[in-house]
Amino acid sequence: MTTTPAATTATPAAGRLANGELRRMVAGALAADPGRELSPREIAKGLGRSSGAVGNALEALTAAGHADRTSAAPRRYRANADTAAAVTAPAPAATATPAATPAPAATAAPAAGTAAKPAKRRPRAAKKAAPAPAAPVRTGNTVARPNGQDYHVRKLAGRADVDVLQTMRAAEVPVLLYGPPGTGKTSLIEAAYGDLLTVQGDGDTTVADLVGEYTQNPDGTFVFVHGPLVRAMREGRVLFIDDATLIPPTVLSVVYPAMDGRREIVIKAHGGEVVKAAPGFFVVAGHNPGVHGAILSDALASRFAFQVQVGSDYDLAAQLGVERGAVKVARELAARQAKGEVGWAPQLRELLAFRKIAAATDSATATANLIGAAPEDDRAIVAAVVRAVYGTNHAPLALGPRI
Protein backbone atom coordinates (compact mmCIF):
# COMPACT_ATOMS: atom_id res chain seq x y z
CA MET A 1 0.00 0.00 0.00
CA THR A 2 1.40 3.40 -0.99
CA THR A 3 1.08 6.37 1.31
CA THR A 4 -0.70 9.29 -0.32
CA PRO A 5 1.95 11.94 -1.00
CA ALA A 6 -0.51 14.82 -0.68
CA ALA A 7 -0.64 14.32 3.05
CA THR A 8 2.90 15.59 3.37
CA THR A 9 2.12 18.98 1.88
CA ALA A 10 0.43 20.31 4.97
CA THR A 11 2.21 23.23 6.56
CA PRO A 12 4.45 21.86 9.31
CA ALA A 13 4.93 23.37 12.67
CA ALA A 14 7.59 26.01 12.81
CA GLY A 15 11.03 24.97 14.04
CA ARG A 16 13.91 22.72 13.12
CA LEU A 17 13.19 19.56 11.16
CA ALA A 18 14.69 16.13 11.65
CA ASN A 19 17.38 14.96 9.26
CA GLY A 20 15.83 14.26 5.84
CA GLU A 21 12.34 15.39 6.85
CA LEU A 22 12.27 18.48 4.65
CA ARG A 23 13.38 16.41 1.68
CA ARG A 24 10.47 14.03 2.17
CA MET A 25 8.07 16.96 2.49
CA VAL A 26 9.36 18.47 -0.75
CA ALA A 27 9.07 15.12 -2.51
CA GLY A 28 5.49 14.93 -1.27
CA ALA A 29 4.72 18.36 -2.72
CA LEU A 30 6.03 17.25 -6.12
CA ALA A 31 4.22 13.92 -5.99
CA ALA A 32 0.94 15.61 -5.07
CA ASP A 33 0.92 17.43 -8.41
CA PRO A 34 2.94 15.14 -10.72
CA GLY A 35 2.18 16.88 -14.00
CA ARG A 36 3.18 20.37 -12.89
CA GLU A 37 6.58 22.06 -12.92
CA LEU A 38 7.15 23.79 -9.58
CA SER A 39 9.69 26.38 -8.43
CA PRO A 40 11.41 26.29 -5.00
CA ARG A 41 9.46 29.40 -3.99
CA GLU A 42 6.09 27.82 -4.86
CA ILE A 43 6.86 24.70 -2.85
CA ALA A 44 8.30 26.70 0.06
CA LYS A 45 5.12 28.78 0.28
CA GLY A 46 2.97 25.67 0.56
CA LEU A 47 5.22 24.07 3.17
CA GLY A 48 5.84 27.18 5.22
CA ARG A 49 9.62 26.77 4.91
CA SER A 50 12.35 28.93 3.38
CA SER A 51 12.86 28.79 -0.38
CA GLY A 52 16.61 28.37 0.07
CA ALA A 53 16.27 25.18 2.10
CA VAL A 54 13.62 23.87 -0.29
CA GLY A 55 15.93 24.61 -3.22
CA ASN A 56 18.71 22.57 -1.60
CA ALA A 57 16.29 19.70 -0.98
CA LEU A 58 15.16 19.77 -4.61
CA GLU A 59 18.76 19.59 -5.81
CA ALA A 60 19.40 16.61 -3.53
CA LEU A 61 16.27 14.85 -4.81
CA THR A 62 17.36 15.49 -8.38
CA ALA A 63 20.87 14.15 -7.72
CA ALA A 64 19.35 10.98 -6.24
CA GLY A 65 17.03 10.50 -9.23
CA HIS A 66 13.88 11.22 -7.19
CA ALA A 67 12.92 14.33 -9.16
CA ASP A 68 13.60 15.99 -12.51
CA ARG A 69 14.86 19.53 -12.95
CA THR A 70 13.03 20.83 -16.01
CA SER A 71 14.52 24.34 -16.10
CA ALA A 72 17.80 25.80 -14.81
CA ALA A 73 16.90 29.50 -15.03
CA PRO A 74 14.47 29.92 -13.41
CA ARG A 75 14.79 26.63 -11.55
CA ARG A 76 11.74 24.39 -11.86
CA TYR A 77 11.21 20.75 -10.92
CA ARG A 78 8.75 17.96 -11.62
CA ALA A 79 7.99 14.59 -10.07
CA ASN A 80 9.09 11.39 -11.79
CA ALA A 81 8.36 7.69 -11.32
CA ASP A 82 10.69 7.49 -8.29
CA THR A 83 9.44 10.54 -6.37
CA ALA A 84 6.93 8.56 -4.32
CA ALA A 85 9.73 6.42 -2.91
CA ALA A 86 11.39 9.53 -1.48
CA VAL A 87 8.14 10.57 0.23
CA THR A 88 7.94 7.46 2.40
CA ALA A 89 11.68 6.97 2.93
CA PRO A 90 12.50 6.64 6.65
CA ALA A 91 15.33 8.75 8.01
CA PRO A 92 18.28 6.43 8.77
CA ALA A 93 19.98 6.93 12.08
CA ALA A 94 23.37 8.55 11.77
CA THR A 95 25.06 5.68 13.55
CA ALA A 96 23.16 2.86 11.87
CA THR A 97 24.59 0.96 8.95
CA PRO A 98 22.28 1.55 5.96
CA ALA A 99 21.10 -1.31 3.82
CA ALA A 100 23.29 -0.32 0.89
CA THR A 101 26.48 -0.22 2.99
CA PRO A 102 28.18 -3.58 3.39
CA ALA A 103 29.15 -4.60 6.90
CA PRO A 104 32.86 -4.31 7.66
CA ALA A 105 34.90 -7.49 7.49
CA ALA A 106 35.59 -9.18 10.79
CA THR A 107 38.96 -8.38 12.35
CA ALA A 108 41.04 -11.21 13.79
CA ALA A 109 41.61 -11.07 17.54
CA PRO A 110 45.17 -10.10 18.55
CA ALA A 111 47.48 -12.79 19.77
CA ALA A 112 47.68 -13.36 23.50
CA GLY A 113 49.94 -10.88 25.24
CA THR A 114 49.79 -8.50 22.32
CA ALA A 115 48.19 -5.16 22.94
CA ALA A 116 45.33 -4.43 20.62
CA LYS A 117 46.03 -1.43 18.42
CA PRO A 118 43.18 0.97 17.77
CA ALA A 119 41.86 0.87 14.25
CA LYS A 120 43.20 3.65 12.10
CA ARG A 121 40.77 5.71 10.13
CA ARG A 122 42.04 5.68 6.58
CA PRO A 123 41.41 8.91 4.74
CA ARG A 124 39.67 8.55 1.46
CA ALA A 125 41.96 9.66 -1.32
CA ALA A 126 40.94 12.88 -2.99
CA LYS A 127 39.59 12.28 -6.46
CA LYS A 128 41.37 13.82 -9.36
CA ALA A 129 39.87 17.23 -10.00
CA ALA A 130 37.31 17.21 -12.77
CA PRO A 131 37.74 19.71 -15.60
CA ALA A 132 36.30 23.03 -14.44
CA PRO A 133 33.58 24.73 -16.46
CA ALA A 134 34.71 27.37 -18.91
CA ALA A 135 35.90 30.57 -17.24
CA PRO A 136 33.64 33.63 -17.58
CA VAL A 137 34.22 35.42 -20.86
CA ARG A 138 35.53 38.95 -20.35
CA THR A 139 35.13 41.48 -23.14
CA GLY A 140 36.64 44.82 -22.28
CA ASN A 141 35.01 45.92 -19.03
CA THR A 142 32.16 43.42 -19.06
CA VAL A 143 31.99 39.74 -18.13
CA ALA A 144 29.27 37.38 -19.33
CA ARG A 145 27.43 35.73 -16.42
CA PRO A 146 25.89 32.22 -16.64
CA ASN A 147 22.41 33.72 -17.15
CA GLY A 148 23.63 35.62 -20.20
CA GLN A 149 23.60 39.04 -18.53
CA ASP A 150 26.71 41.21 -18.51
CA TYR A 151 28.56 42.10 -15.34
CA HIS A 152 30.21 45.51 -15.51
CA VAL A 153 33.66 45.39 -13.92
CA ARG A 154 34.32 47.79 -11.04
CA LYS A 155 37.49 48.97 -9.30
CA LEU A 156 38.76 47.23 -6.19
CA ALA A 157 42.09 48.13 -4.59
CA GLY A 158 43.14 49.86 -7.79
CA ARG A 159 42.44 46.85 -10.02
CA ALA A 160 39.52 45.14 -11.70
CA ASP A 161 37.36 43.48 -9.04
CA VAL A 162 37.18 40.14 -10.87
CA ASP A 163 40.99 40.05 -11.11
CA VAL A 164 41.36 40.71 -7.38
CA LEU A 165 38.95 37.91 -6.48
CA GLN A 166 40.78 35.49 -8.77
CA THR A 167 44.05 36.49 -7.11
CA MET A 168 42.58 35.71 -3.69
CA ARG A 169 41.70 32.23 -4.91
CA ALA A 170 45.26 31.64 -6.12
CA ALA A 171 46.53 32.82 -2.73
CA GLU A 172 43.97 30.65 -0.87
CA VAL A 173 42.49 33.63 1.01
CA PRO A 174 38.71 33.11 1.48
CA VAL A 175 36.57 36.07 0.41
CA LEU A 176 33.49 37.56 2.11
CA LEU A 177 31.38 40.13 0.25
CA TYR A 178 28.94 42.14 2.38
CA GLY A 179 26.33 44.76 1.66
CA PRO A 180 22.57 45.25 1.17
CA PRO A 181 20.63 42.83 -1.05
CA GLY A 182 20.61 43.84 -4.70
CA THR A 183 24.02 45.50 -4.84
CA GLY A 184 25.62 42.88 -7.08
CA LYS A 185 27.49 40.54 -4.72
CA THR A 186 26.30 37.40 -6.49
CA SER A 187 26.89 38.97 -9.90
CA LEU A 188 30.52 39.72 -9.03
CA ILE A 189 31.15 36.20 -7.74
CA GLU A 190 29.63 34.65 -10.87
CA ALA A 191 31.77 36.95 -13.02
CA ALA A 192 34.96 36.09 -11.14
CA TYR A 193 34.61 32.31 -11.00
CA GLY A 194 33.40 29.97 -13.71
CA ASP A 195 33.20 26.83 -11.58
CA LEU A 196 30.78 27.76 -8.80
CA LEU A 197 28.78 25.40 -6.64
CA THR A 198 26.24 27.44 -4.67
CA VAL A 199 24.58 26.86 -1.30
CA GLN A 200 21.71 29.24 -0.51
CA GLY A 201 21.98 29.76 3.23
CA ASP A 202 19.10 30.30 5.65
CA GLY A 203 18.01 29.34 9.14
CA ASP A 204 16.87 25.89 7.98
CA THR A 205 20.19 24.91 6.41
CA THR A 206 21.57 21.71 7.94
CA VAL A 207 24.91 19.92 7.90
CA ALA A 208 23.38 17.46 5.45
CA ASP A 209 22.72 20.30 3.01
CA LEU A 210 26.48 20.87 2.91
CA VAL A 211 28.08 17.42 3.20
CA GLY A 212 25.22 15.16 2.05
CA GLU A 213 23.07 12.42 3.53
CA TYR A 214 21.58 9.01 2.87
CA THR A 215 18.68 8.79 0.44
CA GLN A 216 16.59 5.78 -0.40
CA ASN A 217 16.69 4.07 -3.75
CA PRO A 218 13.50 2.73 -5.37
CA ASP A 219 14.54 -0.80 -4.32
CA GLY A 220 14.62 0.18 -0.66
CA THR A 221 18.40 0.35 -0.26
CA PHE A 222 20.18 3.50 0.84
CA VAL A 223 22.94 5.44 -0.85
CA PHE A 224 24.90 8.39 0.50
CA VAL A 225 24.57 11.42 -1.79
CA HIS A 226 27.41 13.87 -1.21
CA GLY A 227 26.58 17.55 -0.89
CA PRO A 228 28.03 20.64 -2.58
CA LEU A 229 30.86 21.07 -0.06
CA VAL A 230 32.21 17.61 -0.78
CA ARG A 231 31.78 18.00 -4.52
CA ALA A 232 33.61 21.33 -4.52
CA MET A 233 36.45 19.85 -2.46
CA ARG A 234 36.91 16.81 -4.67
CA GLU A 235 36.60 18.70 -7.94
CA GLY A 236 38.74 21.65 -6.90
CA ARG A 237 35.90 24.12 -7.45
CA VAL A 238 34.61 27.28 -5.76
CA LEU A 239 31.94 26.88 -3.07
CA PHE A 240 29.76 29.99 -2.83
CA ILE A 241 27.80 30.21 0.43
CA ASP A 242 25.16 32.86 -0.19
CA ASP A 243 23.67 34.50 2.91
CA ALA A 244 26.22 32.59 4.98
CA THR A 245 25.42 34.53 8.15
CA LEU A 246 21.85 33.20 8.17
CA ILE A 247 23.12 29.64 8.63
CA PRO A 248 23.34 28.51 12.28
CA PRO A 249 27.00 28.75 13.41
CA THR A 250 27.02 25.11 14.55
CA VAL A 251 26.07 24.06 11.02
CA LEU A 252 28.47 26.37 9.21
CA SER A 253 31.37 25.16 11.34
CA VAL A 254 31.49 21.98 9.24
CA VAL A 255 33.12 24.07 6.50
CA TYR A 256 35.91 25.49 8.69
CA PRO A 257 38.30 22.49 8.57
CA ALA A 258 38.17 22.63 4.77
CA MET A 259 39.13 26.32 4.78
CA ASP A 260 42.14 26.23 7.09
CA GLY A 261 45.46 24.41 6.85
CA ARG A 262 43.84 21.01 7.25
CA ARG A 263 41.82 21.34 4.02
CA GLU A 264 39.78 18.28 4.91
CA ILE A 265 36.53 17.33 6.58
CA VAL A 266 35.24 14.21 8.33
CA ILE A 267 31.69 13.09 7.45
CA LYS A 268 30.44 11.53 10.66
CA ALA A 269 27.17 10.42 9.08
CA HIS A 270 29.11 8.37 6.50
CA GLY A 271 31.24 6.24 8.78
CA GLY A 272 33.86 8.90 9.44
CA GLU A 273 34.75 9.34 5.78
CA VAL A 274 37.63 11.77 5.33
CA VAL A 275 37.44 14.12 2.34
CA LYS A 276 40.51 16.10 1.30
CA ALA A 277 40.36 19.23 -0.83
CA ALA A 278 41.82 19.06 -4.32
CA PRO A 279 43.92 21.97 -5.63
CA GLY A 280 41.70 24.88 -6.67
CA PHE A 281 39.09 24.38 -3.93
CA PHE A 282 38.04 27.76 -2.59
CA VAL A 283 35.28 29.24 -0.42
CA VAL A 284 33.58 32.60 -0.97
CA ALA A 285 30.55 33.88 0.93
CA GLY A 286 27.95 36.64 0.88
CA HIS A 287 26.60 38.53 3.89
CA ASN A 288 23.67 40.97 4.11
CA PRO A 289 24.24 42.90 7.37
CA GLY A 290 20.79 44.49 7.44
CA VAL A 291 18.81 41.24 7.08
CA HIS A 292 17.10 39.98 10.23
CA GLY A 293 18.96 37.04 11.73
CA ALA A 294 22.23 37.67 9.85
CA ILE A 295 25.03 37.42 12.41
CA LEU A 296 28.70 37.66 11.47
CA SER A 297 30.30 35.63 14.24
CA ASP A 298 33.94 36.04 15.25
CA ALA A 299 34.65 32.48 14.09
CA LEU A 300 33.23 33.22 10.64
CA ALA A 301 34.89 36.62 10.28
CA SER A 302 38.28 35.23 11.22
CA ARG A 303 38.15 32.61 8.47
CA PHE A 304 37.24 35.06 5.71
CA ALA A 305 40.39 37.14 5.79
CA PHE A 306 39.50 39.21 2.71
CA GLN A 307 36.30 41.19 3.27
CA VAL A 308 34.84 43.60 0.72
CA GLN A 309 31.90 45.96 1.10
CA VAL A 310 29.64 46.04 -1.95
CA GLY A 311 27.37 49.01 -2.61
CA SER A 312 25.31 50.11 -5.60
CA ASP A 313 27.02 52.01 -8.40
CA TYR A 314 24.46 54.70 -9.23
CA ASP A 315 26.63 56.07 -12.05
CA LEU A 316 26.45 52.62 -13.64
CA ALA A 317 22.66 52.62 -13.26
CA ALA A 318 22.49 55.87 -15.22
CA GLN A 319 24.84 54.48 -17.87
CA LEU A 320 22.59 51.43 -18.22
CA GLY A 321 19.63 53.63 -19.09
CA VAL A 322 17.83 53.99 -15.77
CA GLU A 323 15.77 57.18 -15.79
CA ARG A 324 17.63 60.15 -14.30
CA GLY A 325 14.86 60.93 -11.80
CA ALA A 326 14.90 57.38 -10.40
CA VAL A 327 18.68 57.52 -9.96
CA LYS A 328 18.34 60.87 -8.17
CA VAL A 329 15.72 59.39 -5.83
CA ALA A 330 18.04 56.49 -5.06
CA ARG A 331 20.99 58.77 -4.34
CA GLU A 332 18.93 60.95 -2.00
CA LEU A 333 17.55 57.96 -0.10
CA ALA A 334 21.04 56.44 0.16
CA ALA A 335 22.31 59.71 1.68
CA ARG A 336 19.44 59.72 4.18
CA GLN A 337 20.04 56.06 4.96
CA ALA A 338 23.67 56.85 5.80
CA LYS A 339 22.41 59.46 8.29
CA GLY A 340 19.95 57.03 9.85
CA GLU A 341 16.88 58.91 8.61
CA VAL A 342 15.50 55.98 6.61
CA GLY A 343 16.18 52.26 6.63
CA TRP A 344 15.89 51.55 2.89
CA ALA A 345 17.28 52.87 -0.36
CA PRO A 346 16.88 51.41 -3.88
CA GLN A 347 19.86 49.34 -4.96
CA LEU A 348 20.99 48.50 -8.47
CA ARG A 349 18.55 45.57 -8.63
CA GLU A 350 15.54 47.83 -7.92
CA LEU A 351 16.75 50.44 -10.41
CA LEU A 352 17.15 47.91 -13.19
CA ALA A 353 13.66 46.65 -12.40
CA PHE A 354 12.47 50.29 -12.60
CA ARG A 355 13.97 50.51 -16.09
CA LYS A 356 12.19 47.35 -17.26
CA ILE A 357 8.83 48.38 -15.80
CA ALA A 358 9.07 51.88 -17.26
CA ALA A 359 9.87 50.42 -20.68
CA ALA A 360 6.96 47.97 -20.44
CA THR A 361 4.43 50.50 -19.08
CA ASP A 362 5.41 54.08 -18.26
CA SER A 363 7.52 56.11 -15.85
CA ALA A 364 4.61 56.85 -13.49
CA THR A 365 3.87 53.15 -13.03
CA ALA A 366 7.52 52.35 -12.38
CA THR A 367 7.74 55.21 -9.86
CA ALA A 368 4.64 54.03 -7.98
CA ASN A 369 6.04 50.50 -7.94
CA LEU A 370 9.33 51.79 -6.51
CA ILE A 371 7.46 53.29 -3.55
CA GLY A 372 5.61 50.02 -3.02
CA ALA A 373 8.91 48.10 -3.06
CA ALA A 374 10.08 49.99 0.03
CA PRO A 375 9.42 48.54 3.51
CA GLU A 376 6.12 49.83 4.87
CA ASP A 377 7.82 51.86 7.61
CA ASP A 378 9.88 53.76 5.02
CA ARG A 379 7.23 54.39 2.36
CA ALA A 380 6.21 57.83 3.61
CA ILE A 381 9.79 59.11 3.35
CA VAL A 382 10.31 57.41 -0.02
CA ALA A 383 7.10 58.99 -1.32
CA ALA A 384 8.25 62.41 -0.06
CA VAL A 385 11.59 62.09 -1.86
CA VAL A 386 9.82 60.98 -5.04
CA ARG A 387 7.52 64.01 -4.79
CA ALA A 388 10.50 66.35 -4.34
CA VAL A 389 12.29 64.90 -7.38
CA TYR A 390 9.36 64.49 -9.76
CA GLY A 391 7.10 67.27 -8.51
CA THR A 392 4.07 64.97 -8.39
CA ASN A 393 2.48 62.71 -5.82
CA HIS A 394 2.68 58.95 -6.25
CA ALA A 395 1.24 56.12 -4.19
CA PRO A 396 2.07 52.39 -4.20
CA LEU A 397 0.30 50.42 -6.91
CA ALA A 398 -3.11 49.06 -5.89
CA LEU A 399 -6.05 47.53 -7.75
CA GLY A 400 -8.94 49.86 -8.42
CA PRO A 401 -12.63 49.27 -9.20
CA ARG A 402 -13.79 46.91 -11.92
CA ILE A 403 -13.28 48.24 -15.44
Instruction: Return residue spans where pLDDT drops below 50 for at least 5 consecutive residues.
Output: 1-14, 92-131
The main β sheet shows up as: 5 strands, parallel
Tell me the strand percentage band. Answer: 15-25%
How many beta-strand runs?
16
Overall morphology: globular
Percentage of residues assigned to helices? 25-40%
Report the average pLDDT across residues: 84
Q: Which structural class best describes the helix and strand composition?
A: alpha/beta
Report the total helices. Answer: 16
Q: Over the alpha carbons, how many angstroms does the gyration radius reach?
A: 25 Å
Oligomeric form: single chain
Concise account of the structure shown:
The protein has 403 residues and is an alpha/beta fold.
